[in-house]
Design a protein that fits this description.
Distance between the termini: 52 Å
Number of helices: 3
Radius of gyration: 15 Å
Strand order of the largest sheet: 1-8-3-6
Strand content: 25-35%
CATH architecture of the domain at 3-84: Sandwich
Helix content: 25-40%
Structural class: alpha+beta
CATH class of the domain at 3-84: Mainly Beta
Number of strands: 8
Order of helices and strands: EEEEEEHEEHH
CATH superfamily of the domain at 3-84: Jelly Rolls
Length: about 120
Amino acid sequence: MNRQLEVYEHTFEPGAVLFEEGEASRDLYVLLSGAVRVTRSGWEVAEITEPGAYFGEMSSLLGEPRTATVTALSEVRVLIVPPERLEDFFGTTPQLALRMARELARRLADTTQLLVER
């Protein structure tokens, strides 16, 4: 089975690193259960605990290295979407694609507002 060409579930044990900052991997992750910590340059920037939340989208969409490290805080089940499967995946989960588009638009608006306030 070639997991690089299909969407699949994976379980990580507590303390496992799902991906590291600077890594070239491009998979998108959707949290099914558990909790992960997101760190950047060694600083915690988020904890993700909500089933259905996604992470790894920046590298997946832009094809750039990972901007953060994600570590399992508990046993974590995720759906892993290789970049080659993104279009098909979003076609079958349009609600997630719309949620991601809204969140990315919010991030852009927040960043623009910060730049204007300078």
